[in-house]
Amino acid sequence: MMHLKRLSKSGLTALSVSVFYHTAVLLLLTHCCGAQLQVVGPLQPVIVTLGEDIILPCRLEPAVDAAGMTFEWARPDLNPRFVHVWHEHQNLHVNQHPSYKGRTSVSVNQLKQGDVSLKLSKVKLSDSGTYRCYFPDLDKDSTAQLVVGTASQAVISLAGIDKASRGVVLQCESAGWHPEPEVLWLDGEGKLLSAGPTETVRGPDDLYTVSSRVTVEKRHSNSFTCRVQQRNINQTTETHIQVPDDLFVAPCSSAACISISLVACFICVAAVGFAAWKWRQNKIKTSPGEAQRLMAEEEHKNMVDALMKQMEGLKEQRDKLNSQKTKMEELVEDSETKLQSVERDLREKGEDKGFISSPGFIKLKEIISQNKQSLNDRLMELETLVLDTEKLLLMTEGVIVRTTEKKRESENHTDKT
Questions:
Q1: In whole angstroms, what is the distance from residue 14 CA to residue 284 CA?
Q2: Which residues pair with 115 in a beta bridge?
Q3: For residues 56 and 71, is the Cβ–Cβ distance under 8 A?
C-alpha cells in the first residue's frame, strides 16, 4: 500500500492505480497459485424442467476471491456466443446473446468464495446445450451440459373393436414432451404388451406429441397401463385403464363351426355307406345266403346307430347354439341400457352438459355402437348356425328313414323270391 501511495503522489490517477492494483493481484495469484487453480464444473448433465430456474455450477479450486477477476459464460454454438460476462466487479452486457437478456445472474457473495455459478431464469427449450465457464486470464475453463425437458400426463381412450381378434383397441396419447419420449404398454401384471409403432409429431413449439395403439384381449383383471418415459430427463408418467368385460365380444364358437362341418362330411359318408349297402343288397339277390343276409343286417344296424348318435350330437349342438344366442341377445340389450342409463344420470344430476357432447363421450358412444353392431353380427351368425343345424338334423333323420325303408323293401323282395 505504501508503494501505491507513492505512485499516487507521483501523479497517477485513481483509475490507473486501481488497474495497477488488480493487475498486480492477478499476477500474484497467477504466479503463486496459477499452476494449482482449477476451474471445476458439473460431472453430470444438468437437468431442468421447462420454465424453471436453474444453477449451472462452476467454481475455482482452491477457493479464491473471483469478484475482481474476469470470466465468461458462453455457448460456442451461438452467435454472439456470450451468455454472461463478469469483469471488474460488474456484469458486462455488451455482445450478450439477445435470448439471455434479463435472465442471467451470478451471486456476488458466492464470487468471494470462488463460486462463479450461473443462475438462468425461466428456462426455455432453446437453452439446451453446452455451456463454457472460462477464465481468459487463467486460460482455464469447464463445461456444463444443460438438458431442458418437459413431460405430460398420458390419456388413454377406447379406439374401437378388433373383430378379427375379438379384442379392444386402446389408444394412448401424450402431448408436450421434450426430448422425444417412448411409449410402453403393460398388462395388469406389469408385463410388456406388443403394440404398434409409436406415432410422433413435433409441433412448432418444438414439443413432441406421441401416440400408440394396442389391441388387448380379455384377461383376468382387464387392467392395462400406458407408460410414457424420457430417460434423459428422468421423467415417467403412467395412466391406467380398466376395460369393462362387456366390451370384449365373445369369440365365435369354433367348436360349433367345426362340428357343423364334420356333420356335413358325415352325411356324405353316410350317403356313400348307403350306396355301398344297396350294392351289397343287390349282390344278395343274385347269390342268396344266410351268412350274407346276416352281414347286411349288421351293417345296416351299425350305420343306423351311427346316424342316431349323430342326431343326438346335433341336438346338443343346437341347444348350445340357442343358449349362446340368448346370451348374445342379453348382451345387446344390456349394452344399450347402460349407455342410456349413463346419459339419463348425467342429465338428472345436472352434470356439465358439455360432457355429453364432448369428443370423449361421443367416441365412447361410437365404440359402444360398434360393439353392439358386432354383437348383432355374431347374433346373426348364431341364428344361421341354428338353422343349419336344424337342416342337418332333418337330413340325418331322412337318411335313417330312407335306409330303413330300403332295407324293408329289399327284405320283402327277397322273401317273395
A1: 144
A2: 59
A3: no
Place of cell 344420470: 345
Instruction: Give yes or no for a cis peptide into 179 (omega within 30° of 0).
Output: yes
Distance CA 25, CA 35 (A): 15
**Residue type at 310 in one-letter notation:** Q
Q: Strands 140-149 and 46-49: what pairing?
A: parallel
- Per-residue pLDDT of 152-211, as tens digits, reads 999 998 888 777 777 889 999 999 999 999 999 999 889 999 998 999 999 998 999 999
Q: Report pLDDT digits (tens) over 374-387.
A: 777 777 777 777 77
90: its cell numbers:
460488474
Verify cis geometry, omega within 30 degrees of 0, for the bond prior to 197: no
Say which amino acid occupies 387: L
Output the CA–CA distances (angstroms, integers) from residue 63 to 38, 68, 90, 107, 297, in the order listed.
9, 14, 20, 15, 115
DSSP 192: B
Q: Positive or negative CA dihedral for 368, 373, 376, 378?
A: negative
Separation between Cα atoms, residue 358 and residue 256, nearest integer Å: 42
Q: Among residues 341, 194, 320, 210, which one has the least CA distance to residue 257?
A: 320
Closest CA to 285 of 381, 413, 394, 142: 413
Report yes or no: 209 and 152 within 8 Å, Cβ to Cβ: no
CA distance 208 to 176: 6
Phi and psi torsions of 210, nearest 5°: -120, 145
Residue for grid cell 425461466: 122
- Interior angle at CA 184, CA 179 and CA 187, nearest 5: 155
Per-residue pLDDT tens digits for 281-317 = 554 444 445 545 555 565 566 666 666 766 777 777 7
Q: Give the other-Cβ count within 10 Å of 343's Cβ.
A: 13
CB 223 within 8 A of CB 238: no
